[in-house]
Design a protein that fits this description.
about 700 residues, Alpha-Beta Plaits, 5 domains, six-stranded antiparallel beta sheet, 24 helices, globular, disordered C terminus, RNA-binding
Length: about 700
């Protein structure tokens, strides 16, 4: 038997049903016996929604009113009545089992499952299997319109059935027409058989993903704006009703191995992915989640792995994974098992633990633990921030993809702080300073097009370009080294900054208007720490943790680091000719443009960092052929370090390490010669690194 089901929400109707998160307000159904071709009683039930504000389209199409819906039963009771009435009708027809049949997939996948999940009650088993009448109709009549273009009306017109919707109430005509279509498909001329129903997965299945696996880009989406504590099960719940592939949720991590509020989700086919895209800006709790297309390559980059150790750890399927963070570096498997205790036994004992280590074998303080059921995992999560040794331990839900990322793509491949490029040459920038005081002689440009360059900013500022301080243009980049849409400009005086802010505020650059605010050097640093600056004043940064706070701009006064080849260029070889005669007269002598990589080395943990400082005549970094490099070096006797010499960087030092311990560590090795003064003019800080080994700078 089939139960023909039709429904409507308080919002969009037709192809957009369920895309606006509006609640169900109407259910109409009727039982059909496929063997005897008899039907049961047609039932129509209104549903009382929490929000009775109906859209104009809903009012027009359905004819329903908030007053009528206010007297109806809530959804959970309507579904109970549905089960009871269907069972009663089946007994009358002499049948016991049935499968739902709906017009398309939206009612089941995009309305019923998401709404019941949000309201925290379970749907009966019958809602996890159903026939899509549009697909069945197209299989029976291949010459009909494509499945995505089918509607009840077009199917009825194809068969020559009556299509006057005004003869019946809304919902009643749809169900009666669907029943007539089914009977036409069962006729001797067609003799259609309903054999392969659509299925909805009961739960999300975890599992590993190999980098060698092929992932169809038409099945992957990117979800953005997730709460940081959300797990793969929370994401699966957000997409309830849609079938996610096994191990198809990959939480994205930032450079420090922490979740960044994004996830890549892989569905079983492109149809499910397209339905997922309709949930753009649906809510998870109080947050709306953005949903975009992604590629299979992006998914494999996050979720794929090849480590035998990880593969063996994840080979135990349908396990709940918990991540432990902040473990003492001396913690053993026995310590972790003792911390968790008998109330939350680990699957396989020691085999259910995976410690995360750096490439050299040192522990990172992270571990992953497997539990066989939700109850054990919940008991483990209750130990969040309990003490092991002298440290409190954080526990979070995790995923197989996160295990792959943390163990393989992060700690097992490259350190969190990138190593310095080789060879390197300390280069002392010309004497310039970036203001850090309270004088408001700077302006902030906000809302720049991401494609905007220095030329665009100078053109945007017009005549005020002549009032920019030397090296006073600072493009603000995000942690990936891309433009953030902001820039800071140092002007020659506070009056000049005020005039620029008044003249250029909300002036157009390309197709966007740019906001211009007057600010001080101190405020400039404040913004780079995560605070906000507008005409209303300053809002403090959301976080001032030492590990996240960027160094002051004064960090650029220290020795910068640039590739050796770039250091051989002279300013004339690096920079283009002056743009105009006027700019040439006003500009100071040209200076080397320091590549963004140098700044990134100093500010790896910051949310934002400034690009190297630029003068109005300093537009870019122009590469020259190797011959020009050699000629420039020969002509000017550019001093460089001898090849045998090298700087080393020490990572992972104990916090209480002193100079004596470092020198003892290098006992038996020859330090750099003391006399480096003749090679290059050094600042005090740079000389301390090269000349006095007792003052090593350790990062």
């Amino acid at each position: 038997s089939l139960v023909v089901l039709f429904g409507a929400t308080a919002g969009a109707y037709g192809a957009k049903l369920g895309s606006d998160e509006r609640e169900l307000i109407l259910l109409v159904w009727q039982v059909v016996d496929l063997h005897s071709k008899k039907v049961g009683t047609l039932h129509k039930s209104l549903v009382k929604a929490d929000n009775l504000d109906l859209s104009d389209q809903c009012r027009e199409v359905s004819g329903l009113t908030p007053e009528g819906l206010s007297k109806a039963e809530p959804l959970d009771r309507v579904l109970q009545q549905f089960s009871q009435l269907v069972s009663s009708d089946l007994k009358v027809l002499g049948r016991s089992s049935y499968t739902l049949c709906s017009d398309g997939q939206l009612l089941i996948r995009q309305v019923l499952h998401p709404e019941t999940s949000k309201k925290n009650f379970l749907l009966s088993d019958c809602f996890y299997s159903f026939y899509d009448l549009r697909k069945e109709f197209h299989a029976c009549y291949p010459s009909s319109a494509a499945v995505k273009d089918q509607t009840i009306k077009t199917m009825a017109e194809y068969l020559g059935l009556g299509t006057d919707e005004t003869e019946e109430d809304f919902g009643v005509w749809q169900v009666k027409t669907m029943v007539a279509i089914i009977f036409s498909m069962l006729s001797e001329s067609c003799n259609h058989v309903f054999t392969e129903p659509e299925t909805v997965k009961y739960k999300y299945e975890t599992g590993p993903c190999s980098k060698s696996e092929t992932v169809d880009s038409e099945t992957v989406i990117r979800a953005r704006g997730l709460p940081w504590q959300s797990s793969d099960q929370d994401i699966a719940r957000f997409f309830k009703g849609l079938n996610i592939a096994k191990g198809g949720v990959a939480l994205c991590l930032n450079a420090q191995g922490r979740r960044n509020g994004e996830a890549l989700v892989r569905f079983v086919n492109s149809e499910q992915r397209d339905l997922a895209l309709e949930r753009h800006k649906h809510h998870m709790g109080s947050r709306y989640i953005e949903v975009y297309k992604a590629t299979g390559e992006e998914f494999l980059k996050i979720a794929g792995g090849t480590s035998n150790e990880v593969a063996q750890f994840l080979s135990k399927e349908n396990q709940v994974i918990i991540r432990m963070r902040g473990l003492p570096f001396t913690a053993t498997q026995e310590d972790v098992l003792g911390f968790l205790g008998p109330e939350c036994p680990v699957t396989g004992g020691k085999e259910g633990l995976l410690f995360v280590k750096y490439p050299d074998g040192r522990p990172t303080g992270d571990a992953f633990v497997l539990f066989s059921c939700e109850e054990y995992a919940q008991n483990a999560l209750k130990k969040h921030k309990e003490i092991l040794g002298k440290r409190y331990i954080e526990l979070f839900r995790s995923t197989a993809a996160e295990v792959q990322q943390v163990v393989l793509n992060r700690y097992m491949s490259t350190p969190l702080i990138p190593t310095l490029p080789t060879p390197i040459i300390p280069v002392i920038p010309p004497p310039y300073t970036i203001a850090t005081g309270s004088i408001r002689d700077c302006v902030r440009l906000r809302g720049l097009p991401y494609t905007a360059g220095i030329d665009d900013i100078l053109e945007f500022m017009g005549d005020a370009t002549a009032d920019i301080k030397p090296h006073g243009v600072h493009m603000v980049l995000n942690q990936q080294g891309r433009p953030s849409g902001d820039a800071f400009i140092q002007m020659k005086s506070a009056d000049k900054a005020f005039m620029v802010a008044q003249k250029c505020h909300k002036k157009m650059m390309k197709d966007r208007y740019v906001e211009v605010f007057q600010c001080s050097g101190e405020e400039m640093n404040f913004v780079l720490m995560g605070g906000t600056l507008n005409r209303s004043g300053l809002s403090p940064p959301p976080c001032k943790l030492p590990c996240l706070s960027p160094p002051a701009y004064a960090a650029f006064q220290a020795a910068a680091v640039i590739p050796a080849e770039a250091a051989l260029y002279q300013p004339q070889a690096l920079l283009p000719a002056t743009r105009t005669a006027q700019a040439s007269a006003a500009a100071p002598p040209a200076v080397t443009y320091y590549p963004a990589q140098a700044a990134q080395l100093y500010m790896n943990y910051t949310a934002y960092y400034p690009s190297p400082p630029v003068s109005p005549t300093t537009v870019g970094y122009i590469a020259a052929p190797p011959g020009a490099v050699a000629a420039a070096a020969t002509a000017t006797h550019t001093p460089i370090l001898p090849q045998p010499g090298a700087l080393v960087r020490m990572q992972g030092l104990p916090y209480n390490t002193g100079v004596k311990e470092i020198l003892s560590f290098f006992q038996g090795y020859q330090y750099a010669p003391d006399d480096y003064n003749g090679l290059i003019q050094l600042s005090d800080q740079a000389r301390s690194v090269l000349q006095a080994p007792k003052e090593w700078v350790c990062l």
